[in-house]
Amino acid sequence: MKKIFIADDHNIVREGLKLMFHTSRYEVIGEEENGELAFQKIMKNKPDVAILDLNMPGLDGIELTKRIKEYMQEIKVIILTIHTEEKFLIDAMMSGADGFVLKTISRTELFEGIESVLNGQKFIDPQLMQRAFFNVISGEWTKDSLLTVRELEILKLMAMGKTNKEISSELYLGSDTVKEYVTNIMKKLDCKNRTEAVATAIRKKIIF
User: Fold this and answer.
1) Are residues 161 and 197 in the same domain?
2) Neighbours of 140 (CB within 10 A)
3) What are the pLDDT digits (tens) for 164-181?
4) Sequence-ordered list of residues with C-beta below 8 angstroms from that of 80, at least 6 positions apart, any chain
5) Range 104-126 burial, b when 16+ CB lie within 10 A, else e
6) Is 208 a member of any domain?
7) From CA 6, how far away is CA 9, in angstroms rounded?
8) Total domain count for the chain?
9) Residue 81, strand partner residues
């Protein structure tokens, strides 16, 4: 029996997944709505697969994935999200996630994905695979699609006129870390300053 851990800040999602995994093949050994607390429980319970929401308080799914993989590479991680933008998929895969699926995925496809990652393969939601392939061949997958979840979060705060110090305080990040994120954002958007980066992001509809 394979052990499953569920981290999602929506109770109805966790309850639905627990019902789905009520089989002879899987056992849900834990759940949590907070990313930081989820990490602690995952380290303690050592599931075979951790299914993580992308957006959670404490630690988001990307940061939680990085931390899990840093300490226990053998735990398989699947990101389960409503976000369909390729930038989130890329960010998840770069963080070490083994799978990335949408919350609209069917039960059969989710089980297929779990078995795939347990066998050492990567699994991406079929809907996203089709869209990503189209965007690549049509030339629409550009470098601004590579902004990470955290970079997008900081970019939105920049657009609100927040200073690095204010962003640091709001996101509980070190000032040097925020400065590095801002530098990376400007580099990826090929901009020379914060104002230009925000203007470019709005023009390209990276943020709204």
Assistant:
1) yes
2) 11
3) 999 999 899 998 999 999
4) 8, 13, 51, 52, 53, 54, 101, 102, 103, 105
5) ebeeebbbebbebbeeeeebbbe
6) no
7) 10
8) 2
9) 102
